[in-house]
Amino acid sequence: MTARIADVVAALEARYPPAWAESWDRVGLVLGDPEAPAARVLFVVDCVPETVDEAEKVGADLIVAHHPLLLRGVSSVAPTTYKGRIVHRLIRAGIGLFTAHTNADVANPGVSDALAARLGLVDTRPLRPSPADPSRGTGRIGSLSAPMSLAELTASAARALPPTTIGVRAAGDPDRSVERVAVCGGAGDPFLADASAAGADVYLTADLRHHPASEHVSGEGPALLDAAHWATERPWLDGAAELLRGDVPVQTVVSDVDTDPWTVHAPSPRG
User: Fold this and answer.
1) 30 by DSSP, 3-state: which?
2) Known Pfam families for this protein (predicted)?
3) Which residues contribute to the annotated binding site?
């Protein structure tokens, strides 16, 4: 029996209830007839022209994206605009679009569980537990199987995460011994204080800003690892696709298209 888009939406919303999303977020079905067939589903971090190309190439009936295409209110989706062109392409191709964003961030398993697994963390728990259910929440904190230096963990993280131009950078003493590791997929500097309070030796996330990072490592907080936003969220796609296949009779494809905007990196020459 061929699944419908409605069946896929029901399965995904059971795993990632829309009520778990932040009030500012926009999640759920964006495009697509709920009664249309959904034989093949493409999982992506971003719905951008490159991943729409991929959806057309693999014959996807539905895209499941982590980041919302239409996060803020719009007055037009005219094809003369960037997002309007994407909307028109999807409609012409008969491809639906579904978003699971902050509701997937706090799920268990969710975005940060997949990130923690890439680093080999054990005994993980939410970094900022949900008041309604402490088994889920934002970020994760756990332990490495054995202590290592910050420099060693930085190199290990760069190997474990999907490759990007910027790779992984660290803030702190390269020789510092680390074992307790906090992670947060996506932009995680709002949770620096949570990482400190949880007793983390190091905190891995993305999009760390200069002043918060500088003030943080100057104090008693954990060392910092900063990776590309896409690389910290891409690992979630594999598990989400596997769960969907167990819930609904569909084929799934996971996108490895690197949607990180940075495409060139030249390290500064040293003295």
Assistant:
1) strand
2) DUF34_NIF3
3) 66-67, 105, 229, 233
